[in-house]
Amino acid sequence: MTGPLRPDLAEKLAGAAGYGVDLDVPGMLWGALVLAPVAHGRLTGVDLAPARALPGVVAIGAEDLPRLLPGREGDRERPAFPTDTIVYRNQPVAAVAAPTLARAREAARAVTVHVEPLPAVVDVESRFPDWPGPEAAGRPEIAAHVRARHGDVEAAFRDAGTVVREIYRTASVHPVALEPHACVADVEGDRWHVRTSTQSPFGVREDVASILGLPESSIVVEGTWVGGGFGGKGASFVEPWALLLAKAAGRPVRLALTYREEFLLGRTTLPAVVRMETAVRDGRITARRVRLLLDVGTSLPGRDFTTGYSIGFLLGPYRTPVFEVEGYAVRTNKPPFGPHRAPFAPQCAFMVESHLEHVAREAGLDPLAFKADHLWQEGDTTPLGQPVLPFGLRTAFEAARGLAAEWRRSAPPGHGIGVGVGFWSTSTGAGGEARVTLTPEGIRIDQAERDIGSGSVLVGLAAVAERRSHLPRERIRVAYADTAHAPYDAGVFGSRTVGALGRAVDEALVEILGRLGARLAARGPVTLGVEDGEVVVRADGGSRPLRALVTPEEERAGGLTASGKHYGRSGVIDEHRVLDGTFYAYTDFTGAAHVAEVAVDRDTGSVRVVRYAAFHDVGTVIDPFTARAQVEGGVGMGIGTALTEEAIWSPEGRLVNPGLLDYRIPTLGEVPPIDVTFVEGFRGAGPFGAKGLGEPPIIPVPATIASAVRDAVGAHVTELPLNPERVTRALSRTNGTEQGP
Amino acid sequence: MTAPAPPRCRVNGRSVDLGDVPPGERLLDTLRWRLALKGTKEGCRTGSCGACTVLVDGKSALSCLTLTREIEGSAVTTIEGAPDDPEGARVRAAFEAVGALQCGYCTPGFVMALAGLLKERGRGGSFDELLEDLGGNLCRCTGYAAIVRAAASLRTEEAEP
Fold first, then answer.
1. Is A338 buried (19+), middle (13-18) or exposed (0-12) by CB count in 10 A?
2. Residue A738 pLDDT exceeds 50
3. Mean pLDDT, all residues of chain B
4. A13–B143 C-beta distance less than 8 A
5. Residue A181 DSSP SS3
6. CA distance A476 to chain B (A)
7. Can you tell me the ipTM of this complex?
């Protein structure tokens, strides 16, 4: 390739890329939010008069909604502002806009919120100290209940040679995109327009329509450059408030969260408690029982998908003939649960990997051999009864195991080597459409998404088109438009961009190449190239300028155009095994095995990752540069989940560490060099057999590091993160009773 | 008697009148909203993330913790002025060559911080020390790997005669 590694390098390095926070339009006002002072309470009044008394200030609350949205009724379950009950601390209860940010902040502070506090439910274990019984499933604080079972679980546990029972706990983690949520809204007549930093313009449109009770056709969402997403910008956040302020003010309004507000209002992957029981007989897993209590904050009943989805990840990619699983999504007085790069999957992988390693040790077996014996391969069946599709995890695992043995030979005392695995499925179920236009200058791809940094849009879609057409990358341009002009796409999340949107691009391009092939009466494949600065069409050993093959009608239309759509299908699970709730089948099977070397300080419990290697089944590598970058970035983020990141709430529901000094993400010195190896040939659901790669790299990291910590000092840590406090506690618990390396 | 000269500083080589800047205004806000130099990014506003790093008289500074009036008479270089700064230009070229960014939000801060370190250290100090001094700049996308590769390429460049 001769062009730049990514098409956005020059613009971003010039400081010229406009993100949501950079939006500045003439005459705009600055918005600010008024936040609830308690985690739970009866709202008796919001006095906006002191704010409105300030010059140039517009202030709105729940009572203004009928005036701003006459005849409209938004979703009562998620109103823009609460009318009677506060359900989490810092829930926005009103919003203000002013000619300056300082004035807006002053106005927000001037608003008085009258609340009668109610007892808050903050911690799921305190709420259900004896674990919820069957009667809990219908209670309002249970947002979801899932249960599945297969085989004679009781008999398997009765007849087992070894039974291991453990409890695991994981912490709340925040996406920490460095750019806060920010948008500028503008309302003219019936046109509600918002420019915003988002992973999903169409998702924001859908949310805004639902929250404000507007038809989607009157809302236009335009994406900006996105300063990191990681799941945190996958749904609407500040947009409804900004639009309401703009409507009230009759002027554009900018609303951006402060970084403190990012944490205070932020949607995080919330804490969980998991009970795991495993029965082993003659070196084989004969049965597993997994029970999950997942804190989902103020997520709405019926909208939680994580519980059902993560149960599969808690069983892990291991042959399990008999099982019983049950999960409760528990509502608490915290902000709603939000996705964070492979939502809850790294935590699940940590729990199942640490548990099965412990099981193997208790049964007197070699943990890695025990895992290798049980890892799924194509032809196996998942516990929920879905046939396993081509899956390279076993190949990745054996490579990791070999490297771990090598590293172990050279590791100094106090160091440990760990191996961990994670699995995932490319989320191609959500739909994507793209329009491809071919002209003598090259290919243009029209679609809805802004690149969120991963390169999946700007590099991934172009690489798919390059691979299909053979046209050099610098002749392929990925364009975007707002929701009024672009074809629909669900969003840049779920590792789905190349898999789903890429398939749409490929389908459109195949149609165009097919049309050209028919005109040439080609017998073999048709590809494109560049000769004398112009696109040529190649087939059967010859080449013709595209210009000579374009009809006058196509020339008038601006080129050959075709649209592609991809609405993927996932596999099927055995519904007989499902007793309650919704479980999900996988579209394809993607996974990784990682190796870490850590140094552990026995006295302080601090853990340093010394070196790291990742082996990933990606089906087919579409772009080597961005693929490697995704793995490096995912591992870097996973080191935070493993070692430091934890949003902590007080018993009253106050977030005690709303800032980057106290919520610590990895710094440059804390991420070691990462060796990346791809396993190809196990085809996935994406174009050319590609599998998603945005999320998988973070999944095995906490498990791998925990395994290395145990190898180093014998500490079996059953909670995330593995901070010094937890490591020293585990060390003192196991001191003298467990062997080191 | 003539009126005292208004307070001034230079930003990317251009003279800027600070007369209207309130005493409490942060350099970050002056750059972004008064001078429309949006390349300098606002992250935490508490000095924890490094996204707002600029050069003040050739030394890297967190513009969110710098009051504009306290740099009167100084020369400020932002990412927009980096091409005209020898170290800034080198760092930008290194980032481009290895593709050392993803979302790009931390990039201006990293480029300016690294340019400042190169000026400060010249050829002295070890590579590890250089990396340690970059610990105040956070990146959530890259796992820092590509940024370290960019820094290493500058190091190699320096080692050559």
1. buried
2. no
3. 93
4. no
5. coil
6. 19
7. 0.96
Partner A contacted by B137 (CB < 8 A): yes
Task: Give B112's contacts in chain A (Cβ within 8 Å).
Answer: none
Please tell me if residue B23 touches chain A, with a CB cutoff of 8 Å.
Answer: no
Flag whether pLDDT at B5 surpasses 90: no
Compute the distance between CA of residue A173 and CA of residue A306 in angstroms, rounded to an integer: 15
Domains and CATH numbers, chain A: 9-119+181-256 (3.90.1170.50), 272-425+574-734 (3.30.365.10), 432-566 (3.30.365.10)
CA distance B2 to chain A (A): 34
Residue A227 dihedral angles phi and psi, to the nearest 5°: -85, 60
Instruction: Kindly list the strands in the beta sheet with A41-47, ordered across the sheet, starting from the edge strand earlier in the chain.
Output: A85-86, A41-47, A112-117
Full residue range of the structural domain in which residue B65 is found: 8-80
Does B1 reside within a domain? Answer: no
Q: Which member of A5, A453, A633 has the closest CB to residue B104?
A: A453
Reading phi first (left if > 0) and then psi (alpha if -120 to 50, else beta), residue A540 is in left
Minimal Cβ distance to B96: which of A13, A659, A671 = A13
In chain A, the percentage of residues whose pLDDT exceeds 70 is 99
> Which residue in B34, B84, B141, B147 has the most chain A C-beta atoms within 10 A of its own C-beta, making it the best mutation to test that interface?
B141
Residues of B in Cβ contact (< 8 Å) with A102:
none
Distances (CA, A) of A34 to A82, A83, A105, A610, A656: 12, 14, 9, 45, 19
Output the pLDDT for position A739: 41
Classified as helix, coil or strand, A392 is: coil
Residues of B in contact with A636 (CB under 8 A): 139, 142-145
Residue pLDDT, tens place only, A102-129: 999 999 999 999 999 999 999 999 999 9
CATH number at residue B134: 1.10.150.120
- Residue among A239, A265, A88 at smallest CA distance from A653: A88
Name chain B contacts of A14, Cβ cutoff 8 Å: 39, 79-80, 83
C-beta separation of A13 from B25 below 8 A: no
Please report the residues numbered 68 through 127 in chain B whose beta carbons come closer than 8 angstroms to any beta carbon of chain A: 78-80, 82-83, 92, 95-96, 98-99, 101-108, 111
pLDDT tens sequence across A403-437: 999 999 999 999 999 999 999 998 766 789 999 99
Total domains in chain B come to: 2
| B36/B56 same-domain check | yes
Domain boundary among B62, B80, B98: B80
- Put simply, the answer to whether B140 touches A259 (Cβ < 8 Å) is no
The C-alpha atoms of residue A493 and residue A341 are separated, in whole angstroms, by 8
